[in-house]
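Section: Multi-chain targets

For targets with more than one molecule, the full set of components is provided together so that the structure can be written out for the assembly as a whole rather than chain by chain. Components appear in the order listed by the source. The example entry contains two components.
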Amino acid sequence: MDRTMLQRQKFAGLRRELRAVLITLCLVAAITAVLYLLILTTGLEHGSAAYLIPVLIAAMRWGIVSAVVAAVCGVLASAFFFYPPLYSFRIKDPHEVLNLVLFVVVAIVVSQLASRLRRQLELARRREIDLRDLYDFSRRLAGAFDVSDIHAAIEEHLAAVLQCGVVLFAGGRGAGQRKDLPVPRAVLDEVEKCAAGRAGAGAVITAGENETWLVRAVSPKNSEFGVVAINLGPAPPDSIEEFKVRTDAVLTDAAATLERLDVANAIGEARMRAQAEQLREALIESVSHELRTPLASILGAATVLSEAPALQNEAKLKALAQDVRDEAERLNNDIQNLLDATRISSEGVKPRVEWTEPADIIHSALDRCRVRLADRRIRLDIPPNLPLIHVDPVLVRQALVQILDNAVKYSHTGSCVAISARAGNGHLTMNVSDEGAGLTDNEQARMWDRFERGERHAALTGGSGLGLWIANAFIAANGGVIRASSAGVDCGTTMTIELPVKQATVPQLEGDDDE
Amino acid sequence: MNENAPIVLVVDDELQIRRFLRTGFELNGFVVHEATTGAEAIRSATLQPMDVILIDLGLPDMDGAEVVERVRSWSTVPIIVLSVRAAEAEKVRLLELGADDYVVKPFGMAELLARVRGLLRRQMRAVSGEPTVRVGPLTIDLAARAVLLNDRRLALTPKEYRLLQVLAQHVGNVVTHQHLLKEVWGSVHVHDTHYLRIFVRKLRQKIEPDPDSPRILVTELGVGYRLAQPADSESGWAASAVEKTSP
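Its structure, encoded as tokens over all components, is:
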């Protein structure tokens, strides 16, 4: 069966060549007819140079064989039709013999040049495709975040270069992922052997009638790149060696490419990144749990104590219990800030957006700060019918809590904290103004940095210097900006949160049968 | 000890937490039972009817969420989840599983007591068939489908009334956005939070004495809405010394 196939292939090649020669002959005949007509009507002599046309066409399109056929036929036709004695292959004049010899030389040189040009064009096109493949590959690698992305890129790259079905086995990746390309049992066994480093140069497995698989390690030096199983399809036994050589060449190339693009490093880094992320998350979870659980006992016990009947007539003891409660609450806020800060720097903030009533955010923030704001006068200015905003309400509330916290920290007991909201120009702004310490230019420039604390206040108030940095990150995650302005030292500060309002995209109520 | 004292089951593996909860509840006239594992909690709940269950999520033998789900499969006993996990998505998940409320650790005893009392009142109303719910100056008569503010009858549209009705049935406890949307608009609209926002805004205009500072229909950011307990709202009113400027 294989032998007949090979013959069929050869036969197809021969037929192509024959067809080219036939078309060339037709071209020569057409040129002869045209020249003959021209000679009859205009008395033109010696048109043999026109036979260069079919020579050139044949050389460009079908190669040197057809070009030589065209040249020889052209010479014969000239001798037969145009040189005396006419209608005979003999030529009387030695000049004309020289002319024809010159023609043959020129024709052969031209056809050589033309066919070389054709080969070069083809090569350039092939190289362009290779380059495009390589470019695609390196682009995918650059965009790959984890190991499986990188392996998928390698698999696709090999499939594109080899023009065969390719399955890559590496790092837990394998046949399971490829529904379109089932891998036979025998091949899987061989892959395992190869991955364990027990196989030699690679094995050929014939599975079923029409499938021949080649199993190879992608790189003999680096096992990270994995093992490929290549489906050669119904390959004839005597051409397998040929396939094998070609595959090896491609794999060597691919391995070199992988080395050059530092894929091994990328895989290692991606793996480290995933592990670090896991570790960090576990750490955050455990810190959060381990710190908060005892705090819950402290705070709970303090609130029970401060309300206990036995303490109701003991004002000093009651105040102590309340101090314990307040300090526990402060500690809890600090822990929350640290966790938020870790979250921001490790994974970035992923907002859970929903349509939100802006006033709800402000009321919720005020509620959170109720104890801290107890001895400040609060002035609220929230107009009715503010547009809904599409944000993560919890993040915006946290940012607002940080700002309110600062307003309390840097102002005097009994002073006023004003909160207002406005809509306009596609934005919703929330302003928090205090009558406190204000800001110097220097402070304005540095206040958004992490761990930055105003030097004027360092001795007077506590804090980690994380608050505004967190607020800024949370507002930015919602597509907003946060600004500070102050008329100067002791003139108060106004903090502004500006959030986008996508009025046009607020979905309409449908089927509102209420109105 | 009073025969009719409400029984609270405290499920937590931390001794210190159980201790302060026991003291706090006993001082307020409750009978306290304790369990340290999920299995023990389920056994206690089957052996004796509890009035309310407080459960921690991080139990040694199983996740608190599983206990909530299993108790809920045969009992309507009020369940409050106590947890250090504060993410809103987590709260919503537990409320959907059947928990009645969620309190983030650390918390003050007064806050927890208010939530527990609210749940007990609701339970009592369900048993006695009491048809009216009172929240501050607002009265909702579920039998007559009437809503009164300071004894003056309010005109609500059918959807506004339905929204208020669902909240009144859970008075004092948070009701998730998803639950409200499903009850009022149907399950097709469970993600259309803006429906809720717009109707809550209209409803507040009618039922709140001061719609710009809502005290009755309270927002639980990222989770849902709560019809405030009278106790909550009283303390809220007392604590607020807010000046208002009209725009």
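Chain B touches chain A through 48 residues (CB under 8 Å).
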